[in-house]
Amino acid sequence: MEYFKAKRSTEDNPLANSRYFYCKPESVLRNDGIQDMSFDEHQVKVAAFDLDGTLIKTKSSTPFAKDGDDWMMLFESIKPKLVDLAAQGYILAVFTNQKCLTSRAHPFPTPEMIKKIRSIIKHVGVPIQVYAAKQYDKYRKPGTGMFRMLLHDMNRAGLTIAKGSVYVGDAAGRAGDHSSDDKNFARCLSVDFPKTDVTFHVPESFFGEEE
Ligand SMILES: [Mg+2]
C-alpha cells in the first residue's frame, strides 16, 4: 500500500482519485477513478480500453517505454473521443497487462508506471478507472479478475453495468498482433458475465482510423 494516498476530488482537484494509485490486491496497481465521476442513473455503460497499442504508443518507437514520459496518444482522435464518452455518461476504464513491472528483461519501475498513467489522465482531462495486472494470475487478461474488480467498485458506488458497454484492444490475433489476449478477454467476459453484453472492438475501428 506504499502508493495509496486517499484524496477526495474537489472543484480544484477533480481528478484526485483517478491520479492516486495503490496495489490492492498486491498484484493489481489501481486507482478509484469512479469516485471522481458523477452519474444521473444507476445503470451505466462502460467504455473500457487496453492501454499500450490501444490508447498510447511509445514516443521512442521502442516496444517498451523507457520511462514515465515515453508515451504519446496512438491517434489524435482518441482524446476527443474519450472526453465525448465521459460526457455521454460512460465510465472510462483501462485494463492493462504490465509484464514490464515484474520482468527482469524489461524492468520498468512502478513509480514510473504511476507517473505515466497520471500524465495520460491529466492529458485526457476526464476521470479514468485504471487496473494494471502486474503478475500472472487471475487478474491478468484474458483472465477476467480486473473486470470483476470493476463491477465490485461500481457496486460500491451504487452502480450496475448497462447494455451497450464496449472493450477496445489491439491484441486481436490479427496478422502482426503480438497476441489475441484482448479478443480472448472479451470472449471470457461473455462467458463469465453473460448479462453484461460487452462488445469488442479494435482501436482502428473504434476510433474511426481505418484506412
Ligand atoms: Mg495492447
Key descriptive features of the protein:
211 residues; Rossmann fold; alpha/beta
SSE diagram, text form:
Elements: H1 16-19, E1 22-23, E2 28-30, E3 43-44, E4 46-49, E5 56-57, E6 72-73, H2 78-87, E7 91-97, H3 110-124, E8 129-133, H4 145-156, E9 160-161, E10 166-168, H5 181-192, E11 199-201, H6 203-206
Parallel strand pairs: 3-9, 4-7, 4-10, 7-8, 10-11
Antiparallel strand pairs: 1-2, 2-8, 5-6
The structure holds magnesium ion.
Strand order of the largest sheet: 1-2-8-7-4-10-11
Helical region count?
A: 6
Classified in CATH, the superfamily is HAD superfamily/HAD-like
Q: What gap, in angstroms, lies between the N and C termini?
A: 45 Å
Give the CATH architecture. 3-Layer(aba) Sandwich
Low-confidence stretches: none
Please summarize the sheet with the most strands. 7 strands, mixed
Q: Which percent range fits the helix content?
A: 25-40%
Number of strands: 11
Bound molecules: magnesium ion
Q: Mean pLDDT, nearest integer?
A: 92
CATH class wording: Alpha Beta
Report the structural category: alpha/beta
N-to-C SSE string, H for helix and E for strand: HEEEEEEHEHEHEEHEH
CATH fold-level assignment: Rossmann fold
Measured by DSSP, the beta-strand proportion falls in 15-25%
Shape: globular
Radius of gyration using CA atoms only? 16 Å
- What is the total number of structural domains? 1
